[in-house]
Amino acid sequence: MTLKFTNTLSRRLETFEPIHPGEVSLYTCGPTVYDTAHIGNLRTFMFEDLLKRFLIYKGYRVSHVMNITDVDDKTIDRAITEDLSLTELTEHHTRIFLEDLRTLNILPADYLPRATEFIPQMVESIKVLLEKGHAYRTDEGSVFFDVSSFPEYGRLARLDPEQLRSGERVADDDYQKDEARDFALWKARKPTDGDYAWPSQWSAGRPGWHIECSIMSTHFLGKHFDIHCGGVDNIFPHHENEIAQSRCLHNTPFVNLWLHSEHLIVDGQKMSKSLGNFYTLQDILDRQCSPEAVRYTLLATQYRQKLNFTFPRVQESQKAINRLRELVRRLEEVPSSQTGTRPEIPDKAVEAALDDDLNIAGALGAIFSWARELFGLMDGCDLSHEAASKSLEALRRYDEILGVIYFNLDSETGADIKRLIKERDQARKDGDWARADAIREELLTRGIILEDTSSGTIWKKG
Fold first, then answer.
1. CA 49 to CA 400: how far, in whole Å?
2. What CATH class has 4-261?
3. Is the CA virtual torsion 7, 10, 15, 21 positive or negative?
4. Helix (H, G, I), strand (E, B), or coil: what is residue 253?
5. Using 50, 70 and 90 to split pLDDT, how confident is the model at 448?
6. pTM for the whole thing?
7. Strands 456-461 and 448-453: what pairing?
8. Where in the chain is the domain with CATH 1.20.120.640?
9. Span 279-299, mean pLDDT?
10. Fold of the domain spanning 306-402
């Protein structure tokens, strides 16, 4: 089966061929740690986790770098506003971000560089761009990239070359889509920056946002690597500027495949604090949603489609997970002596769907169609024990991609729930109904619903 992705650079579905056979170099734009990430941010990180997990599933060795932007306009402004040091602010929000990733079962990056750790390398690279004639210094000591020196500028974002405003400059780290102007590589310290400045031969100041990612990505992955990811809001100016400065700095192709995830909306509207639909992960968990249900919700829409987040959708995600967990329970209880049908495992269908630009909906459709078949066979006692064992192995494989079935079941939390259920079962056998009811109530307060069936007690997230 052939793995294909839609490359933002070409706007075409392309066959993926890594630079080095069997190995994938992956860079994903990380957070700017001036505030807590919202679920729109987390949707992008979830797409990147699905991508990484599927590449690993297919046998690739993935080298993954995700940066932490701990110095830019936003971090400096917030640190000054909150009367914190830059380190205090950014380390606080970095810890929250990493905990959010753990909560959602997102695999950690192999390398997690901070921008402030690479400022000397950035200074040296800016010096090279000046020497090559791709940058110029201003009177106040800032350095800007000359977009007119790179004829391919605007290709990623499909900008009209005639509309490039050559010679005009934009100093902000973020700007509007029609402002294709020279951008800052080095920003001389302003009075509003406080004491946050680093030395350079041009001035005391700091690097621009765009040069940070170019230096950190190539430091770990080399001057030419396989995949660069981010949200669609990163296409311009950030990734466009990364391409320009990196190509001019190294005279190499830089990145082969650019992948971008679409926006997340809430209840059909753009997420905003003014509308009251702006959510962090903790906001959602506080409404008794399980981490795995949130993960499934963020995962189940193909990355190039807008995701409409609703709380009923999270509830449906929980039901889908519960069904897969019930399937696991039923499969584990198929008697070792039972003979019967051996249905086909849908490995090919699942992989074929994900090979097609990470068509997660197609993969989930194949899994749930197979699950219906298995339930029907088990209801009729017509599933062989061997087939049940093979099916359990397949579910384990699929969950290496999905990360929702066994997530929290294999954790200490899951073990604690099973221990309490076992204790309750014993209390019921002993006629200690008060203790059995107390355990049920304790679990209910944790969002765990118990169901007593003829084959034993099962639990589900409420």
1. 11
2. alpha beta
3. negative
4. coil
5. confident
6. 0.89
7. antiparallel
8. 306-402
9. 95
10. Four Helix Bundle (Hemerythrin (Met), subunit A) (1.20.120)
